[in-house]
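Troubleshooting entry. The earlier prediction with magnesium ion gave an output that would not parse, so I re-checked the input for stray whitespace and re-submitted. Clean input:
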Amino acid sequence: MDTPVAIRSPGISAERRAVLLREIERKLLWLSAWTIHNANHIRPNRDGLKVGGHQASCASVISIMAALYFSVLRPEDRVAVKPHASPVFHAVNYLFGRQTREKMAALRQFGGAQSYPSRAKDGPEVDFSTGSVGLGVAITTFSALMADYVRLHALAAEALPPGRHIAIAGDAELDEGNIYEALLEGWKHDVRNVWWIIDYNRQSLDSVVPDRLFGRIEGLFRDMGWNVVTMKYGRRLEAAFAREGGEALRRWIDDCPNSLYSALTFQGGAAWRQAVLADLGRSQGVRAILDPLGDDEVAALMTNLGGHDVGMLIDSLNAAAAEGDQPTCFIAYTIKGMGLPFAGHKDNHAGLMTREQMELFRGAMQIRPGHEWEPFEGLQASTAELQEFIDSVPFARPLTPRGRSMTAPVVAVPATLPMPKAAGRKMSTQAGFGDILAEIGRGQGEMRELARHIVTTSPDVTVSTNLGPWVNRRGVFDRHTRNDVFRDAKLASAQRWGMTPQGQHIELGIAEQNLFLLLGAAGLAHALHGARVLPVGTVYDPFVNRGLDALIYACYQDARFLLVSTPSGLTLAPEGGQHQSVNTPLLGIAADRLAAYEPAHVDELAILLRHAFAHMQVPDGSAVWLRLSTRQIEQPARSLDSGAVIGGAHWAVPPAPGARIALAYQGPVAPEADAAFALLREEEPGAGLLAITSPDRLHAGWLAALRARRAGDRRARAHVETILAPLAPDAALVTVLDGHPAAHAWLGAVRGQRVVPLGPDHFGQSGDIPDLYREYGLDADAILDACAQALI
Ligand SMILES: Cc1ncc(C[n+]2csc(CCOP(=O)(O)OP(=O)(O)O)c2C)c(N)n1
Ligand SMILES: [Mg+2]
């Protein structure tokens, strides 16, 4: 698969490259430690807060990153870097000329290099943001799946050679459950070209990892069809093991508990010698190995682990690449803090070198004061040779003229989407969603291109969220063609689920984090693969909470997708409290880069669905979330102001100028609001009825207008301000939604109005809608009572 390194740059011999790589390792160790030191000890500190950074976590992964970036990686590979190795990542880019000294010097400062690699803030060199441990590792599985998807659907404008999807993982990341969810899902989809390289320093934040753990984990990977390559000992130790007495020494290290190994590493050569000889001193061979060595050399030998042997790492990685595209887990034994004074100490995770330690380190690295940032300061090789070497490594080739981030043309979205004939009938927003998508799925006329670029996915709730008809039309995606056994046997079923490489639905198991990781990866396909896909994921609304960290993670990376969460709220009446979501409208307000909507009627839904497909493609757009329901309600015949629907609210019945009260509703409580409104109008003929489609958009627009006015733009006006303007300044507002009432309570702050907000603020329970609406205060009587209270 890979061209041997020597052929790429005939100017530098293989032996010389090995020497230069060790120079690069030294430099990465220095730069990462210095960048953190500078942030903590050199830069002025205005607030007295510890700045932090992880010198020990960086040190442990230096050789792994040197081997990858300066030998093994190709430009088309995509990498998720262990979050607390961020300074090493910045240093790598600095050496490639892709990171500035100013940003390095401003690590963890406003506008500086980020503490954890960030796509949105560090720019296109970052393939995947990392930070919440486990998620960066797992997303590589889904980006590999999407790479196959876009290739098999011929969606990429310019096809790149298939790259690998690589996670450089901390060993404690494997404690996160989402890792195993992703492993299982990856196995089901026969995902290829994924590498997870585990920095196995046997330390997490607080502690040393139990010894027995890795045997288990290795077995797990193998069970999931992964190749496992363990890099335990470096070549110097292997050479020692080959000598007389070497086997005893190997056994001694193999049996050495992780915590003792760590402690001896911290204590150094004399302690190592004493401990080994206390057990093996009677072995002539072992003495012959250790006696000629000074204490420092004994320490270097005993800590010569595979993850610190750059030559061995390169050979192992290349050997796995040559074997093919099987997912591979590399367990690289390392020492946390390797090469730094706190190497191996169990408390070193957040440890920082003192000024004195840094001065000693500077001396050892031969860095002159004032020359700390110079890329090749203190190295033996000449600047010209080092630069030639860096320029010659495969990863130095630009992936695109603009760097690692690709683009894809926008898919035209027709001016209107096919509307089901709903007016005058009863229909739910969920059914409307299924119908509209199924119509698009016919792929006819102007819907053809739109349909071609949509990919749907769902964690085992495809049918119950009404994606079924779309799937019947567009098929299920699988890298291999698999027949629909029920269909072949002529057994009746509403679902036709033959699987092919052309299918456009990715069926997931029930783990919701995987849904959001896939939406994250698919929502970055334009940037990662140069292919536009319009991902649509469906999930039950309450279980958004189950995948919330991964959802936020996807948004943090600015992934673009449509989330449809349905059913929602108390309208799942018989299902009971665990299925009735209360907090999700608040999540919609609080989640950045996610425009959250809850339409009540199918005409609003059609406008919002169209908006979603367009909004997720424009540079200043975002992901979109539609909260839907299975409650069937009467569909009005009317024409809507789509701008107002997208802006977050429109008047179902406009108020008379100066009206004393308005009733606002959101989602499927519309019939109760209608009924209460009819009675309210008998008392208050000028009252208005407001349909809120998005408290999130209203709130965001309001904050933006306030900010703009503070900045001097006196004409800035929010949609919510325009909407509420006809009401009397002291008019009352009664609001109602099937979700937490705080989603609306803030509306009173816009113009200083009184608000009586209605909505469940306790866990739900089973019942039918009349009982539950009465119990939670959403029925027409409760709404009228609230109106009376608001008018006092
Ligand atoms: C989800 C999550 N929980 C907790 C943390 C805090 N945290 C950051 S690093 C870390 C330990 C990581 O250990 P490991 O993965 O072994 O990395 P090492 O520093 O040893 O390389 C923890 C608990 C986090 N970033 N994300
Ligand atoms: Mg660790």
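This one parsed fine. DSSP finds 36 helices and 20 strands in the chain.
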